[in-house]
Each structure stands twice: as C-alpha cells, then as structure tokens.
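ESCALATION

Customer reports they have been waiting on this structure for their group meeting. Please prioritize. Original submission:
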Amino acid sequence: MLKVLGRSNSINVKKVLWLCHELGLTYEHVEWGKEGLTLKSDEFLALNPNAKVPVIVDDDFVLWESNTICRYLAGRSQRIDLLPTDLRQRARVEQWMDWQATELNNAWRYAFMGLVRKSPEYQDVQEIAKSVDNWNHHIQILDKALAQTGAFVTGDAFTLADIVLGVAVHRWFMSPIERFELPHVEAYYDRLAQRPGYLLHGRNAVP
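Update from on-call: job pushed to the front of the queue and completed.
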C-alpha cells in the first residue's frame, strides 16, 4: 500500500494528492504535521531528516521532495503524457517544475508567511511589499508563457508541470495581496478547475 504522509493544507502535499487522483492510485493518507503527529518525532525524522512533508512510503521505498515524488509516481504509473520520455519535451516539463520549486516559491514565501500564516518572523512591511512585487513578477512570467502555449504551460497537453504550478496559482489567487489582471493565468486557473483532482486537492479554500 502506498502511503502519503503530510498535512493536506501543505501546498507540497496538495501536489502529490492531486497527482494520486489523476493516476487513480489507491493510497493511505496520514496527516503528519497535524493532531500530534509531529515532524520532529524520531519516527518521522527516520523517514525524512529534513522534518518536512510530503513523504511517501511505497512498500519499503521512502521518498521525500514533492516534485521528485511527482516524477516518481508518474513514472511508476508509466504516464508519459504527464512526464514525457522525449528528451526535449521532458526537459520542458522539468524546467517549469524546477522554476516553481525555486524561483516562484522563493518569491512568495515572505509575503505568504507574513500575511497568511501570520508568522512573527515575517512582519517587516517593506519585505512583505518586496515579496508581493516579486511574486507578481513571477506570475507575469507564467502569464506570458501561457499566452504563447495557449492551454497549458508546456503546450496543448496537461503535464506534471501544471500540477505543481496549479497549486501555486491557487495560492496567488487566494492570498490577501494586490494582484495584476493576468487574463492568461485566469483562464488557466479556470481550465485546471475542469479537473476533479484539482478541485479536491488544489483549488480549495486553503491557500
């Protein structure tokens, strides 16, 4: 039995749960990080010494890092539509996955932690404003890419890149920040909402 470990309101856990739905996988979800299941426990640290979610346990195979988990699960199900075998097509998908994990995440982190999570360590007004500007700048990059591709971020086909970006786009729309009007991102957001897995695990009330 495949196990997915991590609280369902985590943006990185959402990716994995949405993908499991797309793949039609049977799995057990355990809400580590909530209700006494601390990430600092010896039991969890034995699975992921970084004390972060998600983690998957596939029989005796343990894996962490959300985008790597997504690659693994797509490969496990032989879903080359989501993660192509063609070298250049796959590189394009992975380019956007890596961009989400590095450039985009680093842009929104300060503002999100300050405005949504209300963390006392992220309350510098100037830093929040800088983070919001950077966040909007990166979503503009996505908007320009979608203007060129039309439907999804790498072209006409839905891929893993759209799963990791889809949860991030939802966070942008749901956070209490000033946003630009970006018609291609808005259309993309609605297009993804046609997928039941996104409504269950990506586009919901929790940013």
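Sent to customer with the following note: The helical segments are 11-23, 42-45, 66-76, 87-115, 125-149, 160-174, 183-192, 196-201.
Escalation resolved.
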